[in-house]
Structure formats: C-alpha cells, structure tokens
Amino acid sequence: MAHSYKDNFHPLLTTTIYAYYIFFSLELLLAVAASLARTLLGAELEPQFDEPHHATSVQDFWGKRWNLMVSSILRPTVYHPTRAIFSHLVPARWVSVPAVFTTFLVSGIMHEMIFYYLGRFTPTWEVTWFFVIHGVWVGTEIVLKKTMSRRFEPPPLISRSLTLGFVIITSFWLFFPPFLRLNPFARGCREMMAFVGAFRHWHLISPDEYSCPYF
Questions:
Q1: How confident is the model at residue 46 (pLDDT cuts 50, 70, 90)?
Q2: pTM for the whole thing?
Q3: Which of 29, 120, 153, 201 is the 20 to 30 Å CA partner of 113?
Q4: Burial (Cβ within 10 Å: 0-12, 13-18, ≥19) of residue 133
Q5: Could you give the angle at which helices 126-148 and 156-170 cross, rounded to 10 degrees?
Q6: What would the 3-class secondary structure string for the chain be?
C-alpha cells in the first residue's frame, strides 16, 4: 500500500530533507553532464558549486560558491550593464550596490516566472522577496566592507555560521514553501514514469515495475 512517509515527520525536518535532496540532485546532475561533456566532446566543464557551506558572507555564497553558471550569465547580462547605467548617477565607490540589488531583483523575477510556469499558481512573490532580501543584505555587506575595511572581520567559523544560518532561515521562510507547493518530486516522478512507460509498448517493462510512490 502506498504510504506518505513525510506525514510522520515534522515539517521542518521534511523541508530540510528536501533542501539536501535538491542540492545533491543538482550536484549529481551537473556531475553527469560534466562527465558526458568530457567523454563526448573532450570539454572540461567548470564546477557549478564550490563548497557553499564554507561561504564567509552572503556575497561570497552567491558570487563564488553557489550555482556559478547562473552567476556567470547574470554578471555580463544584468550586473555590468546596470553598473554602467548607475555609474552616471552614483559615485564610483558605491556603484556596485545598486547594480547588485538589480541583479538579485532580476533573478527573483526569473525564479518567480519559472515557478509560475511549472505550477500555474498565482504568484505569491515569496521567491522574489527572497532574492530582494538577499540583494539588500549583499549591498549592506559591500557598504560595511568599504567603510570598515578589515577593522571588523569575524573569525571564519563565526562568519560561516552566520552566513549559513541566514541562507537557511530565509530559504525556509520564503524559497522552499512556494517550491514545495509545486510538489516537484511527484511531478518529476510522473514525467520519468511516463518516459519509462514508453518501453511498456515493447513489453520491456511490466506495469507493476513502474509506479510513483505517494508524495
């Protein structure tokens, strides 16, 4: 009998499991893609994650450690053009602040559109607010670094803990709720089973061998 095991867990634990599942799924998917590119094309793809749990600031997390492919896309398409525009309005010392905020805002709207495309739910703008808050936080970090220099630099253990705590709390608050409303794992399972079901046409797989668990 199908059984929803997640009903036996605290929602916070369930969300935590989902978070790690997403991270490791992305790691596995990108590792497979890199392996295929290396085997078929002889190309070496750059890693898309660089130990994000070791980030010493939110700026470090997004700019150098998490989903580096997206960062490399947003940098020339949003950040640099926005920086050029604001260079006529803001002193050079601070021009990166509005450029960073705009980049996070665009990223938030992009994610909101992706979620809408996947679920067709009325946008709640939680995801956009998630990126807006992170954009404000990164801008604040930039200002503090420029004004305080190295006079206040917490030990790595503290800065890593604070960074990871901030990312986790805001993710559980604003990012994961709309993501989980999409029921992404059940959707992914159904699509995979539809693909596998094609083999049933040639009687390669029995009907009992492909079914989705209850999510």
A1: confident
A2: 0.78
A3: 29
A4: middle
A5: 160
A6: CCCCHHHHCCHHHHHHHHHHHHHHHHHHHHHHHHHHHHHHHCCCCCCCCCCHHHCCCHHHHHHHHCCHHHHHHHHHHHHHHHHHHHCCCCCHHHCHHHHHHHHHHHHHHHHHHHHHHHHCCCCCCHHHHHHHHHHHHHHHHHHHHHHHCCCCCCCHHHHHHHHHHHHHHHHHHHHHHHHHHCCHHHHHHHHHHHHHHHHHHHCCCCHHHCCCCCC
